[in-house]
Sequence to fold (863 residues):
Amino acid sequence: MVSTRRGLPGRVEIDAAHRTVDATVVARIAALPVAALAELRCTATWRSVQEILAIRDRLADEGRRLADELETVIGAVGPGPQRPALVALRRALYNARRPAGRAWPVEVGSGLAPRVAAWIADLDRHDALVRRLPEELDQECRGTYEALRRWVGTDAFGHGVLQAGPAMSAALRRWLAAPPGTAPPRQVALRLSRYLARVVAKTSPHATFMMAALGRWSDDGEPVRWDGPWAWRSAVEPNVPLLLRLLTDLARADDGLADLFEIRPNPSLDEDDGRLWYVTGQEDAYNGIAASEPLRRLLRPPYGDLRTGAGDALGRLLDLGVLELHPPVADQAAAHLADLTDRLGTHPAGKALAAAQEALARYPEAARVSEREALRRKVRSAFTRLAEDDADRLPDRNLFHENAVVTTPGPRLGLAAWRPALGDLHAITDFAAVFDRDGVARLLAADLFAQWFGAGARVSFGRFHRTLAERTHRAVPGTLAGELHALMYPWQERHPEGRTPAVPRLDELRDARAAALAAVRGLLPQTPDPLTVDPTVLAGLTAGRPAFVRPVGSLSCFVQTIGPPEDTPVRLVLNGFGPGHGAMRSRVHRLLRVAGVPAGENRPLGTERGVPVEITGLFGSNVNLRSAVATQEIGYPGVVPSGPAVLGLRDLAVRHEPGAGGLVLTHAGHDTPLLPVYTGMVAPMLLPRTARLLLQLFGDMPSPVMGLEPIFSRPPEAVPARVGRTARVSVGRVTVARAAWYVPVREIPRRGRGDSAATHLLALAAWFAEHALPERCFVSSADPGAPVRDRLRVGRLAKPTYLDLADPALVALFDRGLDASGSMVVFREPLPDFEAAADLGGDGDHPDRRRHVSEYVVEVGHA
Fold:
């Protein structure tokens, strides 16, 4: 166990500067071992391909040497039949083509004859390999079907495919039921190979394709230690947003059910200048109604029976959103179906819920896919009853969600082995603060607040929010209000960036970013050789930046170890940043509890930056279900809170601090500083407007304007004319940019009509070799210069897929994927490679079958 010497509770100090990491580490484990993909490689075919390419290189090099030396022989031969034959031979050698019958054999002298004969023998070998390649590939490909069958027949794979799509699951079951040796249908084999590559090569958070665990730091010497054998279990939960929506719709037409719902005032209600202002769950804009005395009495706490008090106006107030009809279960309830079943009792909806609860309780223990399919039908039947027998109101899938957690002890990470890399992570995240968006937005908002309300003033949050929306929505670019709006809505199209004399802080920040980019890119090599930047050099680049640039207090770093697992100190590759404050551990903590795995209490946050108040809404997604990290939550429109410790939006105020030049969110009653916290998995930019504003102006979350890779590797800003390459870049022991190749999609060899798979593979392998691309890599695509409104499509294109040229199915999938690709394809080195996969322990399997791709989420803290 690692001591938190002199550290904050739940934090581990890593050096004398009191830099810290969270005491809990989240591990994300690919469900199947790397051996699964290794067994699908056509290794003999790939050796033949490499031999063919090597012979081609020899033929080209030696052919040109021989052609040059033949010049002397040709010059010494007089007119006659020998001269044309020698010229034809020279041309064939130079172009690496087989000489015509009249060109060989021919007298070339004792020194050249053996070499020409050897060259032709090499050509014969080449041609024989090429002729044999289609049959060799086909035969070896058929030989991989049993390995494919074995791996796709595992529980982790089969259960995940069932959740991904019942049609694909049915096709898989039909193949598995066929006699051994039966080849799968071509399309089924390709789709299974695509899923398998995802399950093995990536920590893809879908169903049982990935396992999550909570680990910890230790004083052990090993960098990563799993005390195997390991085991896993499913955590199954209903689609809660869908469930609550169906129940609410049902309650509107069923008075008996509606009586079991709660009526509550909208928590954003705020009286100002004789009107009651509020936002609804739709968040389009603030609404206002006249604040009549009867309405004031109805909405004045403590609330009585709002149904009776509202009388005939109840329906109207509910329609307006002044009052809210809440299902009798909290958004973050520990067990939604159990709570609802207890609350609804014998009501028909309660019976449907009980049926769904019973089916989902049995689901994790159902080993056979057929059993699971039967339970899925029971869940669908129950949801159909909630939808008033209108099945069209239900989605085709995802009536419930399945995730997988490790039930055995999680990993122990040796702090001593990780300490140097953790220090480098702090240096990187500190440097990256200059590329954060929200920090300067807070300052601009504070300047506007002082203009509107006065320096040092304090107003209700609702009044501040309304004023901000009204005065920035159509503000002119280049003004203080216009630039703040652009910062808060970065996905909207806007004018090209230029100087903003009216907003000097923004110019100061842009200058600092430009200087940081220029300094980093000045270090980049002109060659593809890897570069390692000294962390002290990076730290030095932060010295001249504006004083208002500060790193967020807590953020998650998604990292993987590089090199052999036993290497120490560890080297890491940084895949990206995410929100901190316990976000990842809170999600995994809940899943462990749902799965029935003892997990203890989820550690609450400290109060160093204000009293944490949590935004707890689901906002339409199950991935926002998590364990609480704060004892208080913000009452949000449309959200059912978990308990009495709720601060409604009406209970919040905003105070200006002239000395600090910032804004503070406070409790309206006693002015206690508050820190809004959001630990859900839905991206903050996809949250409703008011939640985003709370986090952008008063929270503590990373908001990068660009990723680490474009900072450290200078990718092309437009589609390159030819293949471009960037080098691997590391800061100390942490890689921040993988080696990458940027290619116009039109340059990649495609499989033409009538081409065999072997012909296409040979052409693709030759092209890879020409540009020094690794035979195994991750592929994505991009549309440089695409408009901001296309961000969702651009995000889909950027998702990497695994490619191995020795796997014919992956090659075929890659070729097909180019049809829907962006204009530029990006190939990245596979870092870490499979040799770095973690051994999860246990004695039953060969070591290769215990090694899984793993990713660790390390939460770093800045004071």
In short: The first strand starts at residue 11 and ends at 13.
